[in-house]
Amino acid sequence: MLWFRRDLRLNDHEALVAAAATGRRVVPVFVVDPVLWANAGDVRRACLSQALSALDHSLRTSGGQLIVRTGAPAEQVVALAQEVGATEVFVTGDFTPYGRNRDARVSAALDKDGRALHEVGAPYAVAPGAVRKSDGTPFRVFTPYYRGWCAHGWSAPMPSPAVTWAAAPSEAIPDHRAPTDTTLPEVSEVAALDRWAAFRQSGLTGYHEQRDRADLAATSQASMDLRWGLIHPRTLLADLGDSKDHDHFRREVCWREFYADVLFHEPASARRNLKVSMDAMRTDNGEQADVRFAAWAEGRTGYPFVDAGMRQLRAEGWVHNRVRMVVASFLVKDLHLDWQRGAAHFM
Known about the structure:
This protein is mainly alpha-helical. Helices cover 48% and strands 6% of the residues.
């Protein structure tokens, strides 16, 4: 079995290569986890629905079909493995706090049933925890991490294997639509590769000078594609050279991996301040705080740059990196509201 999660593609997929290498038929499955679904907003649910439909289409063109099940993964994965007679389940490693705990539960349930969970690869070019200081402790500052990350290196994109797919009864793919005032791009592996090809051809030129300009379409907008694993970061990195523009883009890819590494070592930072000293910062609660938060979320603060960013988030499901920094800073430092409320809104 191949259990898809944040790797909704068929190209450059280590876990798929490992599953195919067994020489046995492969059952492709996605489990709709009620915990993750409940915490996702409308845009995230719509993106996932589109990505799953696109993956299913790709599988069908190669003789397969995506098997969808809903429920606790520790129950659903084991039940499907029993149903199809699979003794091995292959997954891309998940390094988030929730993902690590979930996978431990699934692994234990499979092991109890005489089956095995194989974690292969990562959603990152360099897996969290792989780069450390000379004394074995994790990095806390980006620049030295970046040097270590580059020195560690990453593998070349994986070739697509020949796979014989196996079938099983499936639930319907979730059909969650984006809000009527939100227009999303196509969410698929094909679209992600096309977007990267277009950006590589023209957008990388001048990237180091223009990437901070929120008024220009000067970034790759690959965050969504990387989030759902429609494209792997090493696919991007493999196309980069040594120019100043390419090096700046490589650093941006690394920023994503740096914070994944921080979260790996400090799982509590998903919900609490990374620096304990920031706990002393005063934040407001109550009815007036709720009014200010609503104005922020709806783009009605009266500060044009902030409001434009929040309205763009609603309209497109995406904002420029610098815009995200500005609206987050405004929420905490000007409106005196908890950053956790803003993080939940962005989800």
